[in-house]
Amino acid sequence: MRVVMFGYQTWGHRTLQALLDSEHDVVLVVTHPKSEHAYEKIWSDSVADLAEEHDIPVLIRNRPDDDELLEHLTAARPDIIVANNWRTWIPPHIFNLPHHGTLNIHDSLLPKYAGFSPLIWALINGETEVGVTAHMMDDELDAGDIVRQEAVPVGPTDTATDLFHKTVDLIAPVTTDALTLIAAGHTHFTPQDRTQATFFHKRSAEDTRINWNWPAHDLERLIRAQSHPYPSAYTFHKGKRLDILTATVSRARYGGTPGRIFYRENDGIVIVTGTDARTGNNHGLALTRIRTHDGHELPATDYFTTMGGYLTNRP
């Protein structure tokens, strides 16, 4: 089939490479300009560079809503559009242009975690598996019928970076298997159960700020979800930012006020957590490695040399 590809960052790069390695003919690539957004500089393999290496025409757009783009798409005569990590709305006159419509590749197990940063949100929320879904695009965000879906388990110590590597390797087989079904004439796929749909927004600095009212298990997953190269989860100590790089849930239960710097447990410094911390029924969060406001990384036990005081949500 003649394919036009819409994509961005490493997800789009992997999708384009899968198409190039397949029997299909990529006739045009549309991608976004480079961005300085913190999350868009991560996993930033260039779709444009890969296309140009293979002499494929490239269009750079923030949004696919201009007449010139439509002219190029029409002239390309695609049988299908394939999209992965396209960051803005694709209108119906674009996604319905090819005979086979548009196949979108999304890094979650739809209908859950539609929208942005699905791996991070899934890890924070304690999901036991993540994956990649190929679905037909329709008028609603990430809501079209599922053509192919593949899952991988979330391990007890997995970080968002681990989950990225697990799922990015699924892109090629999910994409090419879905295209094989479509090229063979299949048109009836699995409708999504919209009662199970969840939608998530882009991550920002506010979303990495630690709230000590959260339970320790949730905070431990937040820290793993914000693993390098993602911006670290952070708090404030004596008015200065403190990045929390690694932490574990405490063995014992600790009572008091959320955010209290309380006790050394093994190689960690336990912080009291949870809205009901006063009951003494909660585990704490044992910080093991931190980074100071001036960029120094060190064990938490070297930084917190005395107990007492509080970690806070704000300076």
Question: Would you write up a description of this structure?
Answer:
The protein has 315 residues and is an alpha/beta fold. The protein is 24% helix and 28% strand. It is built from nine helices and 16 strands. It has a seven-stranded mixed sheet, with helices on both faces. Strands 10, 11, 12, 13, 14, 15 and 16 form a seven-stranded antiparallel sheet that branches. The longest helix has 13 residues, at 171-183. It is elongated, with a radius of gyration of 23 Å.
Return Rg in Å.
23 Å
* Main pleated sheet: 7 strands, mixed
Query: What's the order of the H and E elements?
Result: EHEHEHEHEEHEEHHEHEEEEEEHE
DSSP summary: helix tally: 9
Summarize it.
Helix content is 24%, strand content 28%. It is built from nine helices and 16 strands. A hairpin with a 2-residue loop joins strand 10 and strand 11.
Architecture blueprint of SSEs:
Elements: E1 2-7, H1 9-20, E2 25-31, H2 47-53, E3 58-60, H3 67-76, E4 80-84, H4 92-95, E5 102-106, E6 114-115, H5 118-124, E7 129-136, E8 146-153, H6 160-168, H7 171-183, E9 199-200, H8 216-225, E10 233-237, E11 240-253, E12 261-265, E13 268-271, E14 283-291, E15 297-299, H9 300-303, E16 311-312
Parallel strand pairs: 1-2, 1-4, 2-3, 4-5, 6-9
Antiparallel strand pairs: 5-7, 7-8, 10-11, 10-16, 11-14, 12-13, 13-14, 14-15
Helix pairs in contact: 1-7, 5-8
